[in-house]
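Hi R.,

Here's the chain you asked about this morning:
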Amino acid sequence: MRTQQRAVIVLFALILISGLTSFTSYSCTSQLVAKDMDRALLLTMKEQQSDVITQDTIGLFNSHLQMEALRGKATLAVDTKQKDFTCYAHCSAATIFSLSDQRPATVLWSISLLWGMFCLYLRMRKGAALSAQGAMTYGGLTYSETEERFITSTGETVRLTPMQQELMRMFFSSPSHRLKKAEICDTLWPRKPDANDTLYTLIKRLRPIIEEHTSLKIESDRGCSYQLKDSNLE
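And here is the predicted structure, written out as tokens:
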């Protein structure tokens, strides 16, 4: 497995671990907050012996909260949908998140960011190396002139026959990625009077290979030319 692929796998693993760490801290804090609010509400209702919420009720409720940081942020409300009035405590998700210990998650997110920048650096370095080698890239496929091979975005070599490789090289060398039938036939089969059927067979066998590994496809233009197109740009 190539270095760039391993780096991307590590990046996704770091993102996953960071998210799980943050969620776990939030979930644990949420349970502690709910337990503290339920306890404070129970003591408040016992002392007040009424479901009517007043300013004194809120003050009494806050005094019973064990989590000092929660005081003034938790709210009381009355559920009027039930037959009997029910008082309940509520705390926003933002408050719970602010109370949770996100320091480990923050460290992991920072590492993920730095690692993401490292992955970007590897990608840019690879692109610079390919450019230095006289490589051409189109539709997720790269042709290395020095190595005389086609390489996918994941670093795999696309296995092609000599004729298929030469045709793809012609497509890549053309600024418009368009080739006339006569041009292809004259280049690949210069001594053959009529190579249209041979070209048709070559294109037919080449298409599934290219489409399997890249976003490229070969289209026929009114029967007189072929064009290599990137489906992601349409």
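One quick note: The longest helix spans residues 3-48.

Cheers,
M.
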